[in-house]
Amino acid sequence: MGDALFQGQTPLAVRMRPTSLDEVAGQAHLLRPGSPLVTLAAPGVSANTASSVILWGPPGTGKTTLAQAIARSSGRRFVELSAVTAGVRDVREVMQDAMTQRDLYGHSTILFLDEIHRFTKAQQDALLPGVENGWVVLIAATTENPSFSVISPLLSRSLLLTLQTLSDDDLALLVDRAVADPRGLNGSVVLLPDARDALVRLASGDARRALTALEAAASVAPSTVDDDGGADAAPTVEITADHVAQAVDRALLRYDRQGDEHYDVISAFIKSIRGSDVDASLHYLARMIEAGEDPRFIARRLIISAAEDIGLADPHALPLAVAAADAVQFIGMPEGRIPLAEATAYLATTAKSNAAYLAIDRAIADVRGGGFGRVPKHLRDAHYPGAKRLGHGKGYAYPHDSDIGVVAQQYLPDELVGRRYYEPKSLGAERDVQARVEKIRRILDGN
User: Fold this and answer.
1) What number does CATH give the domain 167-248?
2) Could you tell me the sign of the dihedral formed by the alpha carbons of 121, 36, 45, 113, in that order?
3) In CATH, which of 3.40.190.10, 1.10.3710.10, 1.10.760.10, 1.10.10.410 is domain 372-444?
4) Which CATH number, 2.60.40.10, 3.40.50.11810, 3.40.50.300, 2.60.120.430, labels domain 27-162?
5) Threshold 0.85, pTM exceeds
6) 149 within 8 A of 120, measured Cβ to Cβ
7) What is the pLDDT of residues 69-102, one digit of tens each?
8) How does pLDDT run across 193-252, given as a tens digit for each residue?
9) Contact indicator for 319, 346 with CB cutoff of 8 Å
């Protein structure tokens, strides 16, 4: 197609930005009839009754798009600031101008503040008078958890709305629309199915990334003329998956987030951690990250691995995996890859034991198979009236009265006396647990 057609043009992602909420792809949970955003976009809604909102979500999910669509639909003035470049003075000037527009001309103003998490406390404080007095309706966007990055007074005066990563169907709809729409490529290209799938896969739920990659792929795809079309035939541009890979300078992974490859790679990831191969573990982690796998899914699998495969061989593994999951939720991607890699490397290289995992499965199997009996009387609740008359609690030995904190008495029901579920291994920290358990069992048995 050549670069000439793209010179001087506004980027495709900007040209294709919806002009109304009806054109927005995804975020259906926020755009139901009567929802705050739909109400805010309705013409004639008073600025005094409209709620300010904070939009929290990953990049490319439509935060700016929603703000601009609301402004256009409602007929309000629209002012946009970026927390990267704006300061307190800029905010105060906007507030003063908004107050003047309201008082003199009856115009209400929507202030869209991108990346509000980059604002200091003092800068966010400057927003409060305008929000409180209805000079502006604030629509703030952030990729970080507002509970940590937005001051409490501003949070309490705003609705917090969470945007979700766009689905593959949403992205495919946007790509197809951009190919056909006069604002986009206006039908000047033919997007082959493998290229469409590649764009959706590489976008990882980010609409802006999908449209930027489409535009780049169209610029590198060669033009061809149909032999039967004659000298005046318009050139045809076919975009293939290879053109997509060439345009974005990124290898196309075979990875379907809902298909076999999704399950194969996560399976290899967990088995590599279990097998203590840190290099293979990091390789499969990288494949999932590059393919746009949901980082929360990866984090959940790490938590399960820490509990199932490592257990008490390293009691620090589970808290570390949970901390990695919290970190990913807090900072988002791409930086979230770092705590994921740290947790992966730790779990792969530490000692491992599945003894606790096997123990609970053995216990559950007994219970499901009817292997249970009445709780021994000396362990039953003796606090309610009449319990002691039934013998509840009689003969119970209080372990703290013993110098060693353990006394010989029966805890399992009669039918299960002597049953062993937990069999600790002599690996890592569980080696010490194994010695303690053996000693405790001897005491409990009266030996």
Assistant:
1) 1.10.8.60
2) positive
3) 1.10.3710.10
4) 3.40.50.300
5) no
6) no
7) 888 887 778 888 888 888 888 888 988 898 888 8
8) 999 988 988 887 888 889 988 998 988 888 665 555 554 555 578 999 888 888 876 554
9) no
